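Figure-free illustration: sequence to structure, shown twice.
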Amino acid sequence: MHKPSYKLAFTLFLGVAGSLLAHWAGLPAPALIGSGITVTIGSLLKLTTDIPEPLRNIAFVIIGCSLGAGVTHEALSQSAQWPVSLIILTLAMIAILLACSHVLVQFFNQKMDSALLSTSPGALGYVLALAAGGVGDIRAIAVIQSIRILLITTTLPFILVQFGGAPLIANTGSFPAMGHLEFTILFFVSLGGGWFFNKIHVPAAFFLAGIIFSAIAHFNGLLIGRPSADIIFIGFTITGSLIGARFSTIPLSDLKKLLGASLAVLSLSLLIGACFALLVSRILSLPFGQVFVAFAPGGVEAMAAMALSLGYDPAYVAAHHLFRIILLICVLPLLLKMFKKNSAL
């Protein structure tokens, strides 16, 4: 067996083992947290490898299909509140970008372009594409973003449970398991849709395709229920493993050098997100935990998986994270151009 294949098998083994161990320990969002932690440890020991794109796409389609099952007439009846929430999310996102960038520039000697991309609360693929094109220090951006996503994914459920923002066990009883034939058809239709979306450069293409096709089918009564628990387990475990495996290519020296900056950005962005989430929770009478997961500066697929694990409204959380990706794609080039112009004066 070739070494890359051996490493991939061991990476997935660590992910499954961590998921099962976290489930046995009764942790919140066990498949996501457990796989993320064990694969990160393996990555720091250089025992793992990155998750290949086909496996990522499978996981993202599964999570998208699971989220789409929650898009019902009842769920969408509450969408009239979303514009207020989305406006406040926009303010939160701008506050996070400006405040965290200022901290990196003033206290950690980062240049403004690197600081902006390092503190972007989402749209990681787009951010790394900008960095690969010569904007900012790509190594610093990749390290700070990877630490942000890992720590938010593995700590946020504990924070929510500790402060009463999430149930210890998600209430998923109202969603029966979808039949295997129905899921197989939905999965391959979504996979094809994801391939097409990816070709036309739609952000989070496979995740979005899963949501769209599943939502259409469930909203029109063509399908009932979510994918089975075993299938969702696979999607969550691959997603957690993907987050942890990012550290397999990052030198330990870079992690040590940028750990302080990463923790400062993470702490400040979570504090700002929590303040705005609390405001929305009070104004709209929504559960704080649900709003916080929607506002948290984590990856869209991981936060969507967390919402499912914790029993929150999946349509609300997914809509906010997808909106933030689109907003960041529009806002980041403008901010980079503005700060570059100011520095040239």
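We now fold a second protein in the same way, so the two outputs can be compared directly.
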Amino acid sequence: MTSPFGGDIANPMNQPTGPSSLGYWLGGLLIIGGIVGGIAWGWVNVAGFLNAVDDFERVPVGEIGTIQLDEGDYVVYAERGGGQPLGLFLDGVRMRPAGQEGADEIEFEPYVSEFTYDFGNHTGRAQLTFTVEDGGDYRVRVEDGPGTTATTAAFGPSVASDLVSAILGGFVIAGIGIVLGVILLIVTGVRRRRFRQRGWLNAWNGPGGTPIGSQPGSWNPPAPAPSGSWGAPDPQPGGWNPPPPPGGGYPPPTV
């Protein structure tokens, strides 16, 4: 015997289990894992960005200092302890290899885009770029001109890509986990719903696909005809049969 929800009532151990609900758990874990992974990625990369800014070589405005740089490309950042980073500016920066009075000065180029940072005691704006072909010590002079609004010149590699990677990477990781988790939840739900629908259809149709009530051995009484209408059953002997209406029940004769 089948139940209205599928399965065999007489043999409950033979109930079909259908698609597992494990997909719901896996989908939820993917969503949670994506969010946690995105936050972790962003935190690690932001921490790396902050450490890189802390490690910049710095020379106060109006002073001469010595910094150590390796071979590579660098950025000069105009810094100040607070304020609006977009308003920071260095009027003049001069740099040459230390101990080489006759050496050529490093050539600076304007920073082609806009990049600022503001956290803790560091508020800065990227202003100049330069390239160091030979690593070593460099003598730096930061002039205190009339247009200078910064208090410190910071020298370090470009960190804009690190910040972009921290933000976008976190969103990408979280987005992938959420999308995959939602897809798995939807697929699992659709499969389980289709299985229940098949169970209901099988229970309605019965064994072999024959609708219940039309199977061999089932009682299917005919629908009784309305009383007094054509096709009604004939009066049964011994039963009570009402007398015919006055006039014999026949139409009046025509003249």
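Summary for the second example: The radius of gyration is 44 Å.
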